Amino acid sequence: MQIESTSGENEFKVWLTPDELDQLENHAEERSAKHYAVVLLGARVGLRAQEIAEMQYDHLREEDGHYRLRVPEKSGKDTTGSGGKARDAWVPSDAERELLRIRFELDADDSEPLLGVKKRRVRQMVEELGEELADETGNPDWKRLSSHDLRRYYAQTLLVRRDTNPHVVMTIGGWSSLDALTPYLTRPTDEQIQEEMVAAGWD
Fold first, then answer.
1. Domain that holds residue 140
2. Are 20 and 1 in contact (CB under 8 A)?
3. Whole-model pTM?
4. Is residue 165 part of a domain?
5. Which H or E run contains 125?
6. Counting Cβ atoms within 10 Å, is residue 38 exposed (0-12), middle (13-18) or buried (19+)?
7. Residue 140: count of CB within 10 angstroms of its CB
8. Are 122 and 147 in contact (CB under 8 A)?
9. CATH of the domain at 13
10. How many Å apart are CA 83 and CA 88, to the nearest integer?
11. Does the residue 64 lie in any domain?
12. What's the structural domain count of the chain?
């Protein structure tokens, strides 16, 4: 886990590793179906907090054996500042199966928001998970976790760990320009840092 200070007081960016995301997903699944769905939608589908709050199961559709989630214009954020922006987010098949299971567990109406919560509650659920993991692991950095850090993991993993075409990530993730992806492209992962330092004989 890397912690990056921001210009805001007591505000940080948290850069998770794949193992830490697994830890977060496992804890969220034990916590509640809604906590688990928030983590899946943020870290695996790349949704923002508002988009998670407004996600409906009937927004999911299958095409050519793969799943996409339509983010409606009213939910999507246009980072150019000109209003909402619709997009089709890519949903990994294992995440889709988990979301279907959650849908039945919650007995949610397909045409209503899956979680039945507001954006503020989405953010609170992520903060709750961070607080609990900090207590469980003894690592206080978990307390700095925010909902946007899930989307941060999504972007960094696709761009850096999986070497995905930035134009594809921009399209499915709802970024308005390649410049908006630069912070994710230029930040080395924990794995890269370790590999480079060992290769340099600095271990």
1. 2-150
2. yes
3. 0.89
4. no
5. helix 119-137
6. buried
7. 12
8. yes
9. 1.10.443.10
10. 17
11. yes
12. 1
